[in-house]
Design brief:
With about 400 residues, the chain is α/β, with parallel strands linked by helices. Helix content is about 40%, strand content about 15%. Helix 8 crosses helix 10.
């Protein structure tokens, strides 16, 4: 009885958190083939058809080709304009709740009056170009660990927060990793915080009913991650990990599948198929509505997002030895638990070396007290132990 009451309470709390923002924008389905034309000869179409079935078949075929030639799709040239800049951190909120706007105002006041310190940010031009110049300037807050004077290999982790994260989300984790002697780059995903185009309040262009743009955003995120690894290598770092939350975990997984340098991976909320999350998640109901209005099904949503789905690269991911953590939530209404369990089942099938932790909460409630501290303990202890073991084996 108590467990049933707890589940009901948790589901209600989770639903409240996923519906409190009033600035989500519902947009109609767009195929977005134009976002994928730059991929050499991967795009089988010169233009969009006026017939839904023809566009659907074309997008499914394109995704099959992306998966078949994913090494080409996620290929890139190392940027040549890496630079560190100093500036006062800003919030870049994605909601208009009064408490969030007050926090933003306080950060601006503190910076203007000299009460806050500047921070270091890695900036460079993304190898993937979009129509939005601000989005193409990659931003990663740099948390260098104190130099250990050669006592152990130089280690670094890339941190990818959740969809619609503000610019301070996950910064505390980066500071924690510094205490372990691990440097951290907190990477702003495409269309997030300082990279967000001025025309949108939320990071809608990262995940939307525009299929091609959503796919291109994942491609850009993966390439940006790999470019950050190039910069870290040039700085003398030799051992690398990645931590991704929610959408960030999808990007992190696809990047790791295509870059064996990532030997420690922490996936904070995980799923196998991108389209299944879009279709069943509370936070993407407005996107599902656009798909349904266009007459698409859940299976078809899975097919048109196959090229950016972790499941499509499961075997490739498993081909490189690495240490992996998967954290999922028992009452998750955005990444349903069945999809996270599917990740674990496939890890077992492909022989991935992983650990699994379960939170007694939901997707959004992971960020609430006390669950954020439990989650932080799982992530922090795993990262500490995994990098320590990695150093011992070197």
């Amino acid at each position: 009885m108590l467990s049933g009451l707890y589940a009901k309470w948790m589901m209600a709390w989770e639903t409240d958190l996923t519906t409190r923002d009033t600035n989500r924008v519902a947009r109609p389905l767009e195929w977005g083939f134009d976002w994928l034309r730059s991929v050499d000869d991967l795009d089988p179409a010169a233009c969009e058809s006026s017939h839904r079935d023809a566009n659907l078949a074309r997008m499914i075929a394109l995704n099959e080709e992306i998966v078949r030639r994913s090494g080409d799709f996620f290929a890139y040239r190392t940027p040549r304009d890496f630079r560190l800049e100093r500036r006062h951190p800003e919030l870049f909120p994605t909601n208009v709740r009064p408490e969030t706007l007050a926090q933003e105002a306080e950060m601006k006041r503190s910076a203007a009056e000299g009460e806050s310190s500047e921070a270091q940010f890695l900036r460079f031009t993304s190898p993937i170009n979009t129509p939005y110049p601000e989005n193409d300037q990659v931003n990663a807050r740099w948390y260098p660990a104190p130099d250990s004077a050669g006592a152990k290999p130089r280690q670094a982790i890339i941190v990818m927060p959740q969809w619609n994260a503000d610019a301070i989300s996950h910064n505390a984790l980066c500071s924690l990793f510094n205490r372990f002697g691990i440097s951290a780059l907190r990477l702003s995903k495409p269309y997030h915080d300082i990279r967000r185009p001025t025309e949108i309040e939320r990071s809608d262009y990262a995940v939307s009913a525009n299929v091609g743009r959503t796919t291109a955003a994942c491609r850009q995120a993966v390439v940006d991650i790999r470019s950050c690894l190039d910069w870290l290598e040039a700085k003398g770092f030799t051992q690398f990990g990645i931590l991704g939350t929610s959408l960030g975990s999808c990007y992190a997984f696809v990047a790791a599948a295509h870059d064996p340098r990532l030997r420690v991976c922490a996936f904070n909320h995980a799923s196998t198929w991108f389209g299944d999350v879009v279709w069943t998640g509370q936070s993407t109901r407005h996107i599902r509505a656009a798909f349904e209005q266009a007459g698409l099904s859940q299976i078809q949503a899975r097919q048109v997002f196959k090229g950016i789905s972790p499941m499509a690269y499961m075997q490739r991911f498993a081909s490189s030895h690495r240490r992996v953590l998967v954290v999922h939530a028992k009452y998750d209404l955005s990444f349903l638990p069945e999809f996270s369990l599917d990740v674990l089942a496939n890890f077992d099938r492909f022989g991935v070396d992983y650990a699994s932790k379960v939170l007694p909460c939901g997707h959004y409630t992971t960020g609430e007290t006390p669950f954020k501290f439990i989650d932080g303990w799982y992530l922090g202890s795993f990262i500490y132990q995994s990098f320590r073991d990695l150093a011992a084996r070197s």
